[in-house]
Amino acid sequence: MNRLLLKITIITLSVFLFSCAQKDVSKNTTLFLTTNNGNLYSIDLATGKCNWQNIKNIEDTRSDSYFKIEDNTIIKSYENGQIIVFDRQTGKVIKKYQEKESIPESPSLFMFSQYPLVYEGDFIFSNLNGKVKSINSKTMQPNWVYDVKNKVFVSPTIIEDKVIVNAGYNLCAVNAKNGQFITNLKFVNPLPHEPVVSDGEIFVVDENGNAFCLDQELNTKWQFEVNNYISDTQYDENTNANVTTDTNINTLTNLTAGEKLIVLGDAEHIIGIDKKTGKMKWLTTIPVINWQSPTDVALVNKNIREDQDLHDIMNDKVGVLKSLEIIDEEVIANTSSCIAVYNAKNGDLKRKKFLFNNEIIGGIKATKDFYYYLRQDGILYKIDKTLKTETIVYKGINYKPEDEYTSPYMLIE
């Protein structure tokens, strides 16, 4: 009887452990993706099947790609001033909010490239009239409105009970509960991207690549000045000599914050900054085709079409930076034609993969094991972290190829 009881116990425990393992496997296997024509997809990564697809049938407005997953809903904003709440499991519309405040010079344009924010169940967003609004999610009526008196092009963010708004040359803090002004901070150069909140601190980067770390009261904790680390050399005809000039990084993507590292980049550089001190840890470049490398040349020859010239395929370039992510001890970057993986400690290039004739649309979504991305053929692909094995995840993603202002946006849950 003891042996029988032991056997039953082992079987029962095995079933329990298997059940737990199955539950663990099922986590983070749904990819939510939206494109610039308003299509919203839920894709099962385990099976490659589309759980549901919601098509935004509005022809007179471009859809911004950003959305937010909140509990069992997906909240998405649209350029025509709508905020729509979808059921996460079915894709059905639960509720809608329609912004009625238009912009005089462009009555059809309300919001631009904004992530919807949720604070205590209510929506918070800003518009091109410079208004920051909190909308009651039950009544769909404003809780409060604050005027920053300047067009707001990017998403605000929330830290504790403060809404942090990028108003161009100013960063403004507003009380999230009542919309009252708290403080603001002025900058010499404009801020092209939304503020990033990480570990209780606020990070921003200006258009020249200078980065700032701020506390919740917008006091500067450190400032990274790019020209202290990087400079250009130009020939001066008057002195017949090369002279050192300031570098303009011209940031193309927002900075990304990891556990210990901040990374940002432009068309050529990627910079790693110590998150605690603001000191540059390393500087690297985006890979280009090396025509002196037999490996690179062989790769180009392998992928070139019959109607293409060898050197015209990329003109020595691989496109501008589209995204940066930090996973564990690696920094993953992509352009339209290249995926590159760097060592987060020293910036050394660990792996790279060039993609030819079928470019990546927008940024990639990196996980610990795979990198997901949409290519020009409308297919969602994944590639393993070694950059060796690429497979198809789902075919038939619709987007507007002529629209360069927005890119696909992906979240995995």
**Residue runs with pLDDT of under 50 for 5 or more positions:** 1-26
Structural class: mainly beta
Radius of gyration, in Å, reads 24 Å
Question: Major sheet, described briefly?
Answer: 4 strands, antiparallel
Helix content, binned percent: under 10%
**What is the overall silhouette?**
globular
Mean pLDDT equals 83
In total, the number of strands is 34
- Main-sheet strand order equals 3-2-1-34
Q: How much strand content do the residues show? A: 35-45%
- Enumerate how many helices there are, as a single number: 2
**Ends: how far apart?**
46 Å
Looking at this protein, list some descriptive labels.
413 residues, four-stranded antiparallel β-sheet, 8% helix, globular, mainly beta
Describe this structure in words.
A four-stranded antiparallel sheet has the order 3-2-1-34, with no helix packed on it. It is 8% helix and 41% strand. Residues 1-26 have low confidence and may be disordered. The two termini are 46 Å apart. It is mainly β and 413 residues long. The chain has two helices and 34 strands.
Strand-helix topology:
Layout: H1 2-26, E1 30-34, E2 40-44, E3 49-54, E4 67-70, E5 73-77, E6 82-87, E7 93-98, E8 117-119, E9 122-126, E10 131-135, E11 142-147, E12 157-159, E13 162-166, E14 170-175, E15 181-186, E16 196-198, E17 201-205, E18 211-214, E19 220-224, E20 231-236, E21 241-246, E22 256-257, E23 261-265, E24 269-274, E25 280-285, H2 294-303, E26 323-327, E27 330-334, E28 338-343, E29 349-354, E30 365-366, E31 370-374, E32 379-384, E33 390-395, E34 409-412
Antiparallel strand pairs: 1-2, 1-34, 2-3, 4-5, 5-6, 6-7, 8-9, 9-10, 10-11, 12-13, 13-14, 14-15, 16-17, 17-18, 18-19, 20-21, 22-23, 23-24, 24-25, 26-27, 27-28, 28-29, 30-31, 31-32, 32-33
